[in-house]
Design brief:
Order of helices and strands: EHEHH
Distance between the termini: 20 Å
Structural class: alpha+beta
Length: about 80
């Protein structure tokens, strides 16, 4: 980015490991002065529990569903992609 003040981004994989504390953690992070973009990856059951929490009321939430990687067509797409 060529911006002098790039946006603050936090990405969390397997965020459901935080259990019932995830909504509180998301609220605390999302209401910081820097207004960070928070991207989380959770199982669908974890997303329902975390994103429906009243603790996140007033915080914009956008949900994107991903197909399971066990789908044979999708796994083929990932073969040959170098690990980072």
């Amino acid at each position: 980015m060529n911006n002098a003040n790039p946006p603050v981004v936090l990405a969390m994989d397997e965020a459901d490991i935080y259990g019932i504390e995830l909504p509180r953690l998301l609220r605390d992070i999302s209401t910081l002065d820097e207004f960070p973009l928070v991207a989380i990856a959770v199982r669908s059951s974890g997303a329902d529990r975390a994103l429906a929490s009243p603790l996140l009321e007033g915080i914009p939430v956008i949900e994107h569903s991903m197909p399971p990687l066990s789908d044979p067509g999708r796994v083929e797409d990932w073969r040959g992609v170098p690990k980072v």
